[in-house]
């Protein structure tokens, strides 16, 4: 499996279409085929928006999670009907700022978006969010926190963030997931990972 590598792709041309927070490039390329030889030359557009970190703030003493509620423009435009709220239930998340490490992003965003700090940050996994047309990689961490210290409202006004912070029992959050009320990819993946590995935090 996965016998090919980057050396099996030929990028013939890379043309910038838009530079900014969401940069878009058009590529002309070809790659090796499973049955041998090379593919015809074809074009793809790809968006480069940088990489991100997601943090699930978990309080093992109270068996509680800190969940954020905030407005998302993508959810507004994607809504199939008027009953779908563009205010999503999510976990702490943010983009890299300069040369930060993933752990530095996690600590910074945890404080900015929930008012929390942690001395125990556990790496869960990394994944490509939409590799068919975007370069973004998301790294997910579990942060052990004291949920009683969470703010009620948080976010940076300079980034137009208005965040309502909820502290909920773990099983209530799982129920929200099962009801489809937590429906953004990073939160779903992170919570499902925690469901698979929760015992390791209970044993600490």
Automatic annotation (TrEMBL):
<dbReference type="GO" id="GO:0019144">
    <property type="term" value="F:ADP-sugar diphosphatase activity"/>
</dbReference>
<dbReference type="InterPro" id="IPR015797">
    <property type="entry name" value="NUDIX_hydrolase-like_dom_sf"/>
</dbReference>
<feature type="short sequence motif" description="Nudix box">
    <location>
        <begin position="94"/>
        <end position="116"/>
    </location>
</feature>
<dbReference type="GO" id="GO:0019693">
    <property type="term" value="P:ribose phosphate metabolic process"/>
</dbReference>
<dbReference type="GO" id="GO:0005829">
    <property type="term" value="C:cytosol"/>
</dbReference>
<dbReference type="GO" id="GO:0047631">
    <property type="term" value="F:ADP-ribose diphosphatase activity"/>
</dbReference>
<protein>
    <recommendedName>
        <fullName>ADP-ribose pyrophosphatase</fullName>
        <ecNumber>3.6.1.13</ecNumber>
    </recommendedName>
</protein>
<keyword id="KW-0378">Hydrolase</keyword>
<comment type="function">
    <text>Acts on ADP-mannose and ADP-glucose as well as ADP-ribose. Prevents glycogen biosynthesis. The reaction catalyzed by this enzyme is a limiting step of the gluconeogenic process.</text>
</comment>
<comment type="similarity">
    <text>Belongs to the Nudix hydrolase family. NudF subfamily.</text>
</comment>
<dbReference type="GO" id="GO:0046872">
    <property type="term" value="F:metal ion binding"/>
</dbReference>
<dbReference type="InterPro" id="IPR000086">
    <property type="entry name" value="NUDIX_hydrolase_dom"/>
</dbReference>
<feature type="binding site">
    <location>
        <position position="113"/>
    </location>
    <ligand>
        <name>Mg(2+)</name>
    </ligand>
</feature>
<feature type="binding site">
    <location>
        <position position="93"/>
    </location>
    <ligand>
        <name>Mg(2+)</name>
    </ligand>
</feature>
<dbReference type="Pfam" id="PF00293">
    <property type="entry name" value="NUDIX"/>
</dbReference>
<dbReference type="InterPro" id="IPR020084">
    <property type="entry name" value="NUDIX_hydrolase_CS"/>
</dbReference>
<keyword id="KW-0460">Magnesium</keyword>
<feature type="domain" description="Nudix hydrolase">
    <location>
        <begin position="48"/>
        <end position="190"/>
    </location>
</feature>
<dbReference type="GO" id="GO:0006753">
    <property type="term" value="P:nucleoside phosphate metabolic process"/>
</dbReference>
<dbReference type="InterPro" id="IPR004385">
    <property type="entry name" value="NDP_pyrophosphatase"/>
</dbReference>
<keyword id="KW-0479">Metal-binding</keyword>
<feature type="binding site">
    <location>
        <position position="109"/>
    </location>
    <ligand>
        <name>Mg(2+)</name>
    </ligand>
</feature>
<feature type="binding site">
    <location>
        <position position="161"/>
    </location>
    <ligand>
        <name>Mg(2+)</name>
    </ligand>
</feature>
